[in-house]
Amino acid sequence: MPPNQAEADSLTSLQREVARCTRCPRLVQWRESVALNPRASYAGQTYWGKAVPGFGDPDARLVIVGLAPAAHGANRTGRMFTGDRSGDWLFAALHRAGYASQATSTSADDGLSLDGAYVTAAVHCAPPANKPEPGERAACAPYLERELTLLDHWRVIVVLGQIACQGVASLLGLRPRPAFGHLREHPLDDGRYLLCSYHPSQQNTFTGRLSEPMFNAVFERARQLGA
What three-state secondary structure class fits 66? Predict the structure, then answer.
């Protein structure tokens, strides 16, 4: 058996479990209704319409945690941050930093691979208005907790947005709750780091709150911290 094959198999098992999840009725109804009513620009495409697993390198030293799949992005393609403008920003930045094999992410079979990085989210189903409810966040938290356990080589977690930061801080038992702000970093007791970033949503990128150099700096800093 190749090195770390057992970890990869366990992670694969978890990913399959996530894809079958129906814990949150509101999210199940929403993700499926969106899949049955594609945008005109995606007419004729078959949407994933299920919970979206994390993906990436099982030996990742960098873990990126977003908020949730986009209704017409990952909920359509079945891969985190794939097929929407947030993903365009994320994978372009990861490619520049040497973590991604290509700068674009358009479909689950587009050939993209990650080296040293793993991408997941606080919530695995697309929520209405991009706003998961507290109970839905709590129901999904055990999946992220198990991912972090299986990804036992990680050195840095980059959280994209305040909700992701809150979710990770809760799982790691951080008290007091770490302050969120772009490029705010928080050393953990075991020599690892929590690194904060604004989410690459259109709300942030179109308004200039998050620029390309600002986003690049996050992953440059992750490298410096050992990822």
Answer: strand
Sign of torsion, CA 163 121 196 93?
A: negative
Amino acid 6: pLDDT:
60
| Amino acid at site 72 | H
How many residues are listed for the chain in this entry?
A: 227
User: What are the two backbone dihedrals, phi and then psi, of residue 9, each rounded to the nearest 5 degrees?
Assistant: -65, -40
Give the integer Cα–Cα distance in Å for 23 and 142.
12
User: What is the side-by-side strand order in the sheet with 156-160?
Assistant: 55-56, 117-121, 62-66, 156-160, 193-197, 185-187
pLDDT tens profile 32-91: 999 999 999 999 999 999 999 999 999 999 999 999 999 999 999 999 999 999 999 999
Phi and psi at residue 202, to the nearest 5°: -60, -30
**Is-cis flag, bond preceding 176, omega within 30?**
yes
> Is pLDDT of 2 > 50?
no
Q: Where are the beta strands (DSSP E) in the chain?
A: 55-56, 62-66, 117-121, 156-160, 185-187, 193-197
CATH number belonging to domain 5-224: 3.40.470.10
Which tokens is 163 given? 């909700």
102, 100, 103: which is closest to 114 by C-alpha?
Answer: 100
- Residue 56 DSSP SS3: strand
**CA separation (Å) from 133 to 63, 126, 179, 218?**
23, 12, 21, 28
| pLDDT of res. 3 | 46
